[in-house]
């Protein structure tokens, strides 16, 4: 009996399993709400493989509640299109730990490049860092470079007292929440913490978790600057040609051109071309797009499409709209 108690005692006294090591093993399983998704890539492999697909996760009660209009996902869609990255998914979720954990685990396994937006401020409802850290079993650690840049570039607003960086205070602790980042101590810090806008006197980092989750703030100006700043680091990993979009303006109704567009899509699908149709009823015109990567093929089918739609190629949607008559 004493022997069994001793064995149990030794078992309970063993160090707890390190989930960060589990997530950096070559073969691992990722838990989601009610399912298990097998994964075989390490964080370093995710961080270096070619980028074909992307996803964008917008985090924030204010977006779902209608208080804020999300413009970051639209910006990322254009950004991905310009680089030839296939943006496969955009999701908007609330500031909820379980929602964030489930979403980032799933997206990290399914897509090459993932960006999150929102929830990394100084207030109680900014829980993105801590939730993503928990998703991958990582601790939150004060990042020295983020902290130093924060002190260097943070400026008080008019009428606001400068913060005392050497004295503990609720205000300082709130600021430090934005510098405590998910950190895998077994990986190179230069791969986990990027500062693409340091030359613009911007202290905000891009924390990269599990090799492909890029955590960005929700403030559009900062989000856009950081995303643009990431181009330099990811361009060597882009191997797909840039996407090309042909825009055709047509006076035909969607119902009129639907049979032709259905047949056209079947015919061009093998060439990687997607046919899109977008109504613009207020202008009595509709837009049809041809999107693909083979310019020669797109050039070859465009005249036929224009003829069948009784339309014309435009550079920007709406450029051939009729101007309203002036009130004389």
UniProtKB/TrEMBL annotation:
<dbReference type="Pfam" id="PF24102">
    <property type="entry name" value="FLAD1_M"/>
</dbReference>
<dbReference type="GO" id="GO:0042726">
    <property type="term" value="P:flavin-containing compound metabolic process"/>
</dbReference>
<dbReference type="InterPro" id="IPR056596">
    <property type="entry name" value="FLAD1_M"/>
</dbReference>
<protein>
    <submittedName>
        <fullName>Molybdenum cofactor synthesis domain-containing protein</fullName>
    </submittedName>
</protein>
<dbReference type="InterPro" id="IPR001453">
    <property type="entry name" value="MoaB/Mog_dom"/>
</dbReference>
<dbReference type="InterPro" id="IPR036425">
    <property type="entry name" value="MoaB/Mog-like_dom_sf"/>
</dbReference>
<dbReference type="GO" id="GO:0047884">
    <property type="term" value="F:FAD diphosphatase activity"/>
</dbReference>
<dbReference type="Pfam" id="PF00994">
    <property type="entry name" value="MoCF_biosynth"/>
</dbReference>
<feature type="domain" description="MoaB/Mog">
    <location>
        <begin position="55"/>
        <end position="237"/>
    </location>
</feature>
């Amino acid at each position: 009996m004493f022997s069994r108690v001793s064995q149990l005692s030794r078992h309970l006294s063993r160090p707890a399993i390190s989930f960060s090591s589990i997530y950096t093993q070559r073969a691992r399983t990722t838990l989601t709400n009610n399912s298990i998704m097998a994964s075989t890539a390490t964080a370093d492999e995710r961080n270096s493989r070619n980028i074909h697909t992307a996803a964008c996760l917008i985090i924030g009660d204010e977006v779902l509640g209608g208080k804020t209009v999300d413009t970051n996902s639209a910006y990322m869609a254009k950004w991905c299109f310009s680089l030839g990255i296939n943006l496969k998914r955009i999701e908007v979720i609330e500031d909820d730990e379980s929602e964030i954990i489930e979403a980032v685990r799933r997206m990290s396994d399914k897509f090459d490049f993932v960006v999150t937006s929102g929830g990394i401020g100084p207030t109680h409802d900014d829980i993105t860092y801590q939730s993503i850290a928990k998703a991958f079993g990582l601790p939150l650690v004060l990042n020295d470079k983020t902290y130093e840049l924060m002190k260097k570039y943070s400026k008080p607003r008019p009428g606001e007292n400068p913060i005392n960086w050497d004295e503990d205070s609720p205000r300082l602790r709130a600021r430090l929440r934005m510098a405590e980042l998910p950190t895998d101590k077994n990986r190179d810090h230069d791969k986990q913490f990027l500062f693409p806008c340091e030359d613009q006197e911007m202290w905000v980092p891009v924390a990269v978790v599990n090799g492909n989750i890029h955590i960005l703030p929700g403030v559009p100006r900062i989000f856009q600057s950081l995303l643009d700043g990431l181009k330099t680091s990811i361009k060597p990993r882009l191997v797909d040609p840039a996407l090309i979009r042909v825009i055709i303006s047509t006076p035909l109704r969607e119902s009129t051109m639907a049979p032709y567009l259905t047949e056209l899509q079947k015919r061009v699908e093998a060439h990687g071309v997607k046919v899109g149709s977008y109504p613009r009823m207020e202008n009595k015109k509709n837009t049809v797009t041809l999107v693909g990567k083979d310019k020669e093929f797109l050039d070859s089918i465009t005249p036929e499409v224009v003829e069948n739609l009784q339309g014309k190629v435009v550079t920007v949607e709406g450029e051939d709209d009729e101007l309203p008559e002036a009130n004389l």
